[in-house]
Amino acid sequence: MSDSPSPSSRDTSGADQGQPFERQFLGPLYWGIWLFVGLLWLLAYAPHRLRLGLAILLGGLYRRAYPKRRRIVARNLSLCFPEASDETRSDWLRRHFILQAYALLDLGRLWFRPADYLMSHTRVSDPDAFAQLVAGGGVVLTGHGAGLEWVGHFFTMNMTGSAMYKPFGRNRLLNWLFERGRERHGARVYPRAQGLKPHLRHLRAGQGFFYIADEDLGAADSVFAPFFGVEKATVPLAGKIAALGRVPVYPALGQLDLGDGSYRLLILPQTVIPQEADESAAAAINSTLERLIRIDPPQYMWSLKLFKTRPNAAREVYD
C-alpha cells in the first residue's frame, strides 16, 4: 500500500528526556484513562471494519450529544464554503465527525503497532517531494487534518525532526502518553513555551520541523489575513522560520481513507512563504492551507474555533 521512500537512518543523539513516568499514574484517579488505553490496544489489532463501525457510532453520538461543537463545525463550513449546498455541507459535517472519531480510535495503532506496519498503511501523494524533504530537511507547513497524528508519526519514521505541543492542562498522564507516543520513532517534541530555538537547531542540521499553522492563538502574536475569504488571526512565522533554519517549506496534510483505514500524506512541492512576519506571509500561509483542505474538505478539523479572534472588535461569529 505504501508508495513512500524507505525510512532513513535517524540521529537521535542528544535527545531531550521527556516527562518521566510517575507512580501516581497507577492510582484510581487515572484508572479510566488506563481502561481507554486498553481499549485502544485491542482496537490496534482489530479489523478495519470494526474500527469503522465504532467510529460511525461514536461520531454520530458525539455529533448529537454536543450541539455546541456541531454548531461550530456547521458555522465554519458555512463561512468557508458559502457556495456549497446545504446538503453538501451536511454530508461534510457528518463525515467530519466520523473521520475524527476513527482517528481517535486509531491512537492504538500508532502507539502499539510496529513501524513497518504503519509504513505499509501510509501512502504519499508526491514521493519525489517527500524524498527531497527527507534528504535536505524543511519546514512542514500543516494543519489539523484527520491524519495529523498518523502522518506526524510517519515523518519521524523517515527522518529526524521536531514539533511543538500543547500540554493537556493538568492531566499529566495524558501528557506522558502523547509525548511517549510521539517520540517512539525518534521525534523531538517541545512545549510551545520553549519557543523556536530547539526547532531551528534541528532545521540547521538538515532535519524537519512539523509546523501546525492554523491555530488561532489570539491577536497579540498574529496578523489578520483571509482564510477561505474570512479574516483570520494567523501567526505569520513559517517563512521566517524557514529562512532562519536555511530550509524550504513543504505544505502537507494528513488524510484518512475510511474505505480501508489507510492514511495519505498529501504533500506539495516546495513553496515560498515571505520571510517578513506580516500580512503577506499570513496570506500565503492561509492560501497554502486552503489548497490542501479543498482537496477533501471533511478531512479538516472544522470543530476548531478558527475565527474566534476578530479584527477591529468585529462581531463574534460563534454562538
UniProtKB/TrEMBL annotation:
Name the GO cellular-component terms: plasma membrane
Under Gene Ontology molecular function, one entry of this record is: acyltransferase activity
Keywords linked to the UniProt accession: Acyltransferase, Cell inner membrane, Cell membrane, Membrane, Transferase, Transmembrane, Transmembrane helix
Q: Which InterPro entries match?
A: LipA_acyltrans
Biological process terms from the Gene Ontology for this record are: glycolipid biosynthetic process
Q: Which CDD domains does the UniProt entry name for this protein?
A: LPLAT_LABLAT-like (cd07984)
* Membrane-spanning segments: 25-44
Query: Where does this one sit in the cell?
Result: Cell inner membrane
Protein name in the entry: Lipid A biosynthesis acyltransferase
Organism for this UniProt entry: Halothiobacillus diazotrophicus
Q: What is the lineage of its organism?
A: Bacteria, Pseudomonadati, Pseudomonadota, Gammaproteobacteria, Chromatiales
